Amino acid sequence: MKTIAVVIASLIAFSGISHAAGGIGDAADVTAPVKEIMDATRSNWADNNSDWTDIFDASRLDHLYSRDFVAKYQAAAQFPAVDDDGISPFDYDVIVNGQDACPLEDLTMAAAPVVDGVAEVTVRFKKSACSDAPDAKDYTTVRFQVVEEGGKPVIDDIVTENIETQARDSLKTTMALIAKGQ
């Protein structure tokens, strides 16, 4: 009997049943929403004439982001920044953390183990490699907080590192401030 219990416990541990029970699945699943956002961002800054891809359009909000993130985005969107469409609460690209960038270079993505239901996916890239600025070869780091909702991984926050202050800036906190008119 004890042997059967050990075998069953082993099968449960390695079969992904924890995923069905509310844990986040394997690293490939955790990176899926991040990869979609980074593919769009890479395309946006590529040396081509393709249309700009809104990483917060309705279809992406519907399947890539958590309910809490979407609620904060929709509240912030009531206070659009000055942009061509007049709908975005941001007047900068939240991934490159600026208004200007070059084609993204040396992009890497790594998922950390799940801690308290959150997987952090760290993305690093050079956003200014085509520039002559002294910091042109510096890496930009963006940390995506990924949680599981409805059985799939979704982005719950996007955290950028402020190079000047060495602080981490949460996009959800920024959206909450925008929604308050700040």
UniProtKB/TrEMBL annotation:
Signal peptide: 1-20
Domain of life, per lineage: Bacteria
Keyword tags: Signal
Presence of keyword Signal: yes
Protein name: DUF3828 domain-containing protein
Species this protein is from: Rhizobium beringeri
